[in-house]
Design brief:
About 40% of the residues lie in helices and about 15% in strands. The chain is an alpha+beta fold.
Length: about 450
């Protein structure tokens, strides 16, 4: 899906050539690998993109579901993360070979031709299984709504965080009475914190890891701080670009300053975790790094990206359950898919162990979740999410990140001036707004993205 040259004709042609699920190149995980051969009355095929710790946590939740619902056999399959997953899911839906249940990033739903490649959820059936709209943050629920119908059922919110070493910040006098990092409310205040932290940092370590050379991380950081400034992308009709180049340049200059002032080293752009484990005071990473740092038994904390421009906002995406299009969807299998998704959503305590914020609000209020650290330090990010615009070319690893992410990187590295990079970003946004979605041949203005 993320490849601009992919046309719907190519999509359908490729799907027609697939004769078996094995052609998609997925690897089956979990005890449900032989589910299709079991004697359960109902079977659900479920595709996801979770590997590593997330994969283990998902398997644990699926096994719990199997134990609670022995009459439903779950065949779970894990595909390669990123665009390969989305391309295969699209081809399967176009060729009527889709699984009964799938996972997507919410930001990619608008571009997945809802109504053609995705089927809408039966919200009454979800309510019957314990999942209701009022159990969600309003903004998060609405991100999955297209033209008045729910196409994505959020499982979590995963955010970019500011990880900090308490042992280093304690030496620098940067911890408050609550043993958490001192508040930061301005760009100058943030660089003042970095200056003091550097004094307490061992020689040979950078002060902060920023994934300087990574187009996705740099784009995510940009989205966060541009949102803090109140920046917008397009008008409501998606016919005009409203991108503010002055605000964008301010954000780009802020990111660039980490390099020019010597706090972040481009040569260490891919070893942020190692640097943090070895004593670097800061790392900006996704919340999925929590198990890594917790497993190392570090004295650390994690907070949303600092509100350096006055308004709290940190980049956020969400994994969500979707119903890939199947002709004649309905009956016991469809009901079982609804039941499975609802079960995982309402039993997401296990999922929170991987660092993700459960989307199901009642889970956040449980004593078990409130005891989790550092999750309970950054759970507030649920209320100030910085999301990409709701257009077909946005979302995790989408075309938008592919186009403008490298521009942000070039500015952070200093090969392009921030003001010139901002103008280039606005030009790219205009080009993308005029492009047609390869899934359905419609531009953002022509497509259905109304909540």
């Amino acid at each position: 899906m993320g490849q601009p040259g992919l046309t719907r004709r190519h999509l359908l042609g490729a799907a027609g050539g697939l004769t078996a699920a094995a052609s998609f190149g997925f690897a089956a995980l979990g005890s449900g690998a032989d589910a299709l051969a079991s004697h359960a009355r109902t079977r659900v095929r479920y595709w996801n993109l979770f590997s590593g710790g997330d994969g283990s946590n998902m398997i644990a939740m699926l096994n719990a579901f199997r134990a609670a619902h022995p009459d439903i056999a779950v065949k779970d399959s894990t595909l390669q993360w990123g665009n390969p997953f989305y391309t295969k899911l699209a081809m399967a839906a176009a060729g009527n070979r889709a699984p009964d249940l799938g996972v997507m990033h919410v930001g990619r739903v608008a571009g997945f031709s809802p109504g053609r490649l995705l089927d809408a959820w039966d919200v009454d059936l979800l309510a019957e299984y314990g999942v209701r709209e009022q159990d969600y943050h309003p903004g998060l629920w609405q991100r999955g709504v297209i033209d008045g119908k729910l196409y994505a059922l959020p499982l979590d919110v995963h955010v970019q965080l500011c990880f900090y070493r308490k042992d280093v910040l304690r030496k620098a006098g940067l911890l408050g009475a609550d043993d958490r990092m001192v508040p930061v409310t301005s760009a100058d205040g943030w660089f003042g914190v970095l200056k003091e932290a550097r004094k307490a940092t061992r020689k040979g370590l950078q002060t902060i890891g920023l994934w300087i050379n990574d187009q996705n991380f740099q784009w995510w950081f940009f989205v966060a701080f541009y949102t803090q400034l109140g920046g917008t992308w397009f008008d409501a009709a998606h016919t005009e670009v409203t991108f503010d180049t002055d605000k964008a340049a301010e954000v780009l200059q802020f990111l660039r300053r980490h390099v020019t002032d010597g706090y972040a080293d481009p040569a260490m752009g891919s070893v942020n975790a190692e640097q943090f484990l070895n004593g670097a005071p800061f790392a900006w990473e996704g919340n999925w790094s929590v198990p890594v740092y917790a497993g190392a038994k570090l004295d650390y904390g994690a907070m949303p990206l600092p509100p350096v421009f006055g308004k709290q906002a940190t980049h956020a995406e969400s994994h969500a359950f979707v119903l890939p299009h199947r002709s004649g969807r309905g009956g016991a299998t469809d009901e079982a898919a609804h039941r499975l998704a609802a079960y995982v959503v309402t039993h997401a305590r296990q999922w929170a162990a991987g660092g993700h914020i459960p989307a199901h609000l009642p889970t956040l209020s449980t004593p078990a979740y409130r005891k989790l650290y550092p999750q309970n330090e950054y759970v507030s990010a649920m209320n100030h999410q910085a999301n990409e615009p709701k257009v077909w070319f946005a979302g995790s690893t989408g075309i938008l990140a592919q186009r403008v992410g490298p521009v942000v990187v070039s500015s952070t590295l200093g090969s392009v001036r921030p003001d010139a990079a901002a103008r280039r970003m606005k030009s790219d946004l205009g080009t993308l707004l005029a492009m047609k979605n390869p899934m359905d041949g419609r531009t953002a203005a022509q497509g259905g993205t109304a909540a």
